[in-house]
Amino acid sequence: MQQHATITEASFIRDADLRPAPRPRGRPIHRMLVSFSAAYFAGALVTDLVYWQMPDVLWERFSIWLIAAGLIMAGLATIAYVIDFAARRRLDRPVWPRVVGYAIAVLLALTNAFVHSRDGYTAVVPTGLMLSALVVVVLAMTALVFFAWHVVMALDAMRFRWTQMPLWLQLIGACLLLGSFYIFYLTFRENSYLSPAVRVQSERGQTVVSTGPYKYVRHPLYSGFVLYAVGTALLLGSGYGLIGALLLIAMIAWRAVREERVLQEELKGYDNYLSRVRYRLIPYLW
């Protein structure tokens, strides 16, 4: 009887272990609302362009309604962001470049709404049209900073040659780039909890990783990115790419500091890890 109870209990425990782990909380609502507002602002640019070529008042009205709808969605996105933040849903970081860029775009759109509210052709051309285009450009640059960095480097190095670097610097860049790939490999091998969102994966039983490159720096993945950014710019011989790399590194450094605050609050044993590993990105420097 006791043996049967033991077997039953073991079977129950095994079945319980096979149950799927609880899924992390859903995707933040504000992302969807931001996408809707961006789509409305882009639509306003399209209708402004049509009105520029065919000055029918109907297209001007379309632009006004699209801008107004985009502003409403922006307000809802702001409220949703506060709710997502309070609910501790997954928020990609660093958020401040996107927040600043989005805020600038919304302020420009608000100004554009007042410009479009005037009567006559000049309500759209040229001021309203320029503001609509500027809103779309700011949103695109905010969303595509990393992509734009690669584009600028390629144009600088291969097409316009705005800046040039000696061969020995390009060779150093190649070495840095290869080193970054090796650090990426070591980091992914040691840490299975890597995620673009800063959060503790309690559903997977996340623990502190202190082996491999984590013995020397707290954020080896970001250390690899530092080498990648600088190495890519040097290898291509782009001075503008190097300036962009420094800006991206500053953003990564800011993210590392914010990430540590989250891990200190939510991940058991991380305080002890911080006391043992002093450097964030670069050994003996920072």
The number of helical elements comes to 10
| Spatial separation of the terminal alpha carbons | 63 Å
Radius of gyration: 25 Å
Shape: flat
Low-pLDDT residue intervals, each spanning 5 or more residues = 1-26
Main pleated sheet? none
Number of domains: 2
Identify the CATH architecture of the largest domain: Up-down Bundle
| Proportion of beta-strand residues | under 5%
Helix-strand string = HHHHHHHHHH
Secondary-structure-derived class? mainly alpha
Helix content: over 70%
CATH topology of the largest domain: Four Helix Bundle (Hemerythrin (Met), subunit A)
By CATH reckoning, the class of the largest domain would read Mainly Alpha
Q: What is the averaged pLDDT score?
A: 77
Task: Please provide the count of β strands.
Answer: 0
Structure, described:
The chain has two domains: 115 residues; 130 residues, Four Helix Bundle (Hemerythrin (Met), subunit A) (Up-down Bundle), CATH 1.20.120. The chain starts with a helix and ends in a 10-residue tail after the last helix. Helix 2 packs antiparallel against helix 5 and helix 4 packs antiparallel against helix 5. It is flat. The chain has 286 residues and is mainly α. The N terminus is likely disordered. It is built from ten helices and no strands. Helix content is 70%, strand content 0%.
